[in-house]
Amino acid sequence: MPAREPDCSCGRGPSVAQGKWYGVRSYLHLFYEDCTGASPDWDGDGSSPHGAWAPLIWKVSLSTGTLFLLMGAAALAAGSLVPPKLEGIGEEEFMVLDVQAVRYNHALGTCRLVGMALCVAAGMLGAV
Q1: Which whole number is the average pLDDT over 58-81?
Q2: Count of CB atoms within 10 A of residue 128's CB?
Q3: Which residue from 63, 94, 98, 95 is spatially nearest to 84, judged by alpha carbons?
Q4: How many H-runs (helices) and E-runs (strands) does the chain carry?
Q5: Among 88, 82, 73, 89, which Cα is nearest to 107's?
Q6: Distance CA 123, CA 119 (A)
Q7: How confident is the model at residue 1 (pLDDT cuts 50, 70, 90)?
Q8: CB atoms within 10 A of CB 72
């Protein structure tokens, strides 16, 4: 059987005998050989270079984006589907302005605006 180069870059362990690798033992050394510090991509303690924060940040941004999207859709639906009230009551010469109706219609417009802002924020969080 021809000799081949080891797959592990550390080159240590019991299976290395003057640069030759043999049979099953050359496969098992990948599991049992101590290659601490052999690869610059990994720390000595076995953690990834990006850390454990990357999956957590991804999950939090996805769940926050989903929550914002649902809240934004509810706010858009409430602002668009609820009918506005009449602000002016009366005839042409005598017009009475209903202040409560003006505030109500303004609240509906604000609800639509907040819904659009939440949907945009959800899209931005989803894009990250």
Answers
A1: 95
A2: 9
A3: 98
A4: 3, 2
A5: 82
A6: 6
A7: low
A8: 20
